[in-house]
Amino acid sequence: THRAIAARAGMSTSTTSYFFSSLDQLVAAALHVVGERIVQRVDAVTAQVAESELSPRESIDRFVDAVMSEPEPDTVAQFEIYLECRRRPQLQPTAHRIMASIERGAEASLSALGIARTDERAPMVVALLDGLALHRHARPRPTDRQVLTDALYSLHRGFVEADAEAPVRK
C-alpha cells in the first residue's frame, strides 16, 4: 500500500500518492531505480575485466567474484523485473536495458579472451549466468561459487576448441 511504502521511506502517505497515482507506477519506478543500479554495476565489472590484461582463468575468477558479491536484493529484483514485464509492460525497457548491459558485458569479456563470434555466444553466457543465479537463490549450496566457475571455464574451453576447429572465413 501507499501507506506501508511511505512509512518504510519515512515520509507521509500524501508524498507517495502525490508523485505516484497508482501502486503500479510506484513499483515500476522503484524497479527502474534498481535496474539502473544493476546496469551501472555490470558496466563497471565489464570495464574492469575487459580492460585488464588477465589470463582467461584470472578473468573468469574476477568475474565470478563480482557475480557472487552482487547484493542479493538486487539479484532478486532483477528477476522480479523480468517476471513483472508480463503484468507491467512499462517495465520492459528497464528489463531490456539490464539484459543488453549484461550481454554487452559478456561480449566484451569474451572478446578480451580472444573468443570469436561474441554476438552469438554472449547470450549463451547470459543464459548460464541467469540460470545459475535462479538456482542459487532458490536453493543455495556451499558449492555455488565452484559450480559457476567450472561452468564458465567449460564454456570458455568449448568456445576455444570450436574456434580452433572452425574453418577460416574469408
Task: Provide a descriptive summary of the structure in words.
- The protein is mainly alpha-helical.
- It has eight helices and no strands.
- It has helices at about 1-10, 15-20, 25-50, 55-70, 70-85, 90-110, 120-140, 145-165.
- Helix 1 (about 1-10) packs across helix 2 (about 15-20) and helix 4 (about 55-70) runs antiparallel to helix 8 (about 145-165).
- The termini are far apart.
- The mean pLDDT is about 85.
Q: Can you tell me the residue ranges where pLDDT is under 50 for at least 5 consecutive residues?
A: none
User: Sheet with the most strands?
Assistant: none
Mean pLDDT: 86
Order of helices and strands: HHHHHHHH
How much of the residues is beta strand, in percent? Answer: under 5%
Q: Which structural category fits the helices and strands?
A: mainly alpha
State the distance separating the first and last CA atoms: 61 Å
User: Which word captures the global form?
Assistant: elongated
**Radius of gyration, rounded?**
19 Å
Q: In percent, how helical is the residue content? A: over 70%
The helix count comes to 8
Give the strand tally: 0
